[in-house]
Amino acid sequence: MNGISTLLIVVGLFLAGGVFSFAKQKMPKNLIVLLSVGAAMCLVAGVLRLEVWS
Fold first, then answer.
1. For position 37, what pLDDT does the model report?
2. What is the percentage of the chain residues whose pLDDT exceeds 90?
3. From residue 39, how far is each of 13, 16, 35, 54 by CA, in Å?
4. How far apart are CA 44 and CA 36, in angstroms?
């Protein structure tokens, strides 16, 4: 596990926590969807950069 994949996974988890927090605060749905798309992209990019796949 290198540094960039770790960073992407951590940022994705941070954004996923933001999605949960914003949903509890009843923020606008557009903002929650945008944040969840960003979190999913960070998590997928971090997992795909792991060296287990090669």
1. 97
2. 83
3. 7, 6, 6, 24
4. 12
User: What count of other Cβ atoms lies within 10 Å of the Cβ of residue 44?
Assistant: 13
Q: Which ranges of the chain have pLDDT less than 50?
A: none
C-alpha closest to that of 29 among 19, 39, 38: 19
Q: Which tokens sit at 36?
A: 């969840």
Looking up tokens 């999913």 gives 40
| Token pair for 1 | 């596990």
* Helix spans in the chain (H): 3-24, 29-48
DSSP state of 2: -
User: Do residues 15 and 44 lie in contact, with contact meaning Cβ atoms separated by under 8 Å?
Assistant: no
